[in-house]
Amino acid sequence: MTKGLFKPSGSHSVRATPISDDTIQFRGLRLDTVTWGGGCWQAANYDRMDPDFSWEEGGRFLMEVEGMMATEQHVPSMLPEMSRERWAEGTWRIPIADQYTNGTGIKMRAIPAAKAGWEAVKLGTAGQKYQRYRTSDVNFYLIALGRLHGRRLARTSQGLVGLMPADVEIGDIVAIIVGAESPMLPRPGSEGGAYKIVGECY
Fold it and tell me: How far apart are CA 133 and CA 109, in angstroms?
């Protein structure tokens, strides 16, 4: 994830306490539990200039996200301030983790114009559009999508939908670890309440 872009725990710094050679203690907040994992966006070739780049596979991934958002039409109760319209934007924001890089290289939350890139991938015209509009909103969306290959769509028990590491499993926990740059995915271990950090999520 983009450093400092979302910062779910606010301005707090990471506080880690070594417990043993392979265990570190963090403070955090358990948000939810993963109950479903879908397809994984795997790019055959990260180079978007290469004709073998997985535009078709990317299109299938976007369709899966769109289908999932269609089944989750109600905003989860744990997001009381989010409007239905904002929730629906997840259809095109989730595949790129709501990241966007503008023409000067500054990273920010995705702007509405970036949706054109989502439409290009869905329509199967992304390869041609990338060649024609390398500095457009279309291209910036495609760059973000390409960087996030290897992520899996997932849903939680409270209806949250997002991107998880490819090896996410049902029962993994979505948590905010104090000081982390994004929500994290701890997996319950087999010993004494320890967890394995699987990776970050959006």
Answer: 21
What's the DSSP call for residue 50?
Answer: S
CA distance between the termini of the chain: 8
State the DSSP code for 172.
-
What is the pLDDT, as a whole number, of residue 3? Answer: 46
186 membership: H or E segment, kind and range = strand 184-188
Strands 173-177 vs 161-165: parallel, antiparallel or unpaired: unpaired
Compute φ and ψ for 43, nearest 5 degrees. Answer: -85, 130
User: Residue 72 in contact with residue 78, Cβ under 8 Å?
Assistant: no
pLDDT (tens digit per residue) in 103-155: 777 778 888 888 888 888 787 765 565 556 555 777 778 778 877 878 899 99
Question: Each residue of 49-97: pLDDT tens digit?
Answer: 555 556 677 788 888 999 999 888 789 998 889 999 999 999 999 999 8
- Return the exposure string of 156-174: e unless at least 16 CB atoms fall within 10 Å of the residue's CB, then b: beebbbbbbbeebeeebbb
Within 13 Å, how many C-alpha atoms sit on residue 126's CB side?
33
What is the identity of the amino acid at 19? I
Provide the phi-psi class of 12: left if phi over 0, else alpha when psi is between -120 and 50, else beta.
beta
